[in-house]
């Protein structure tokens, strides 16, 4: 007998998010009149509960509950800010 209910039964990944090339990432704390999402960012890898996304800070692993599929036209390129500082190998 399990001591806690499993959340695997409630896991639902919308089909448009499962196939999205780009996603919006919901901010943790937003204020009134502030955009609730950052992005769009390119999806690098998909897991069952998390996606690996290329953000302006590098690759980040983000939970699917914070993601929203983004529709990006094919000829538009996403420009990330240049990284500053020393290059670390």
Describe this structure in words.
- The protein has 89 residues and is mainly beta.
- It has a domain at 12-41 and 62-74.
- Helix content is 4%, strand content 35%.
- It contains one helix and five strands, in the order H-E-E-E-E-E.
- It has one helix at 15-18, and strands spanning 22-26, 37-46, 50-55, 58-63, 67-70.
- Strands 4-3-2-1-5 form a five-stranded antiparallel β-sheet.
- The chain is globular.
- It starts with 14 loop residues before the first helix and ends in a 19-residue tail after the last strand.
Give the arrangement of secondary structure elements.
Elements: H1 15-18, E1 22-26, E2 37-46, E3 50-55, E4 58-63, E5 67-70
Antiparallel strand pairs: 1-2, 1-5, 2-3, 3-4
Low-confidence stretches: none
Helix content: under 10%
Instruction: Spell out the helices and strands N to C.
Output: HEEEEE
Q: Measure the end-to-end span.
A: 49 Å
Main β-sheet description: 5 strands, antiparallel
What is the helix tally?
Answer: 1
Structural class: mainly beta
Mean pLDDT: 83
Radius of gyration using CA atoms only: 16 Å
User: What's the number of extended β-strand segments?
Assistant: 5
Q: Order of strands across the biggest sheet?
A: 4-3-2-1-5
As a percent range, the share of strand residues is: 25-35%
- The gross shape turns out to be globular
